[in-house]
Design a protein that fits this description.
The protein is of the alpha+beta class. It has eight helices and seven strands, in the order H-H-H-E-E-E-E-H-E-H-E-H-E-H-H.
Amino acid sequence: MTALSDAAIRVRSALEARGLETPMRSHNLTTDEQQEQITGLMTQVMDVLGLDLNDDSLAETPQRIAKMYVREIFSGLDYAHFPKITLIENKMKVDEMVQVRDITLTSTCEHHFVTIDGTATVAYIPRGKVIGLSKINRIVQFFARRPQVQERLTQQVLVALQALLESDDVAVSITATHYCVKARGVMDATSNTTTTSLGGIFKSRPATRQEFLSGVVR
């Protein structure tokens, strides 16, 4: 088992303390064992649907799905994949908002296992530490690579950055299209959903909150 980084442990502990961790149970399966079991289960699903797994177009589908689940779209369930985080001392004394807009994310609805497709905007007020900008994108993408609900995803990114920066002054907004709405059920092809989570002065100071939100809605 891969040892977890200090950043991963800190973030997971913060989420657990806030009741925001994705509902999971522990298991001792290796990645290969997970893939093997999912392959067998997907074979059963496809068989029940009446698909002919002897057809050359379908024969490898269970293995493809298993690999995709474990190594790609649900890889964020394993904190061994938490991104390497670069934090540096705020020697420049930056004290104005740092905002990263239009971070692309693709996640999966935990209710129907279909796609959530959207963008995130993340901001923070530097205090003692500054985080590498690309690390913000990677943190968003890490938590997106799980079965998710958008409200929890938004808060997970917020709490992760608060834990790493040791500051409450973080804000996150996500706007996304949910294919459980677009491609099934009500089948609304044009609606999207926006969720926002604010901490520290983004919540307590109206001017800072407005500055952040004005960058979200353009």
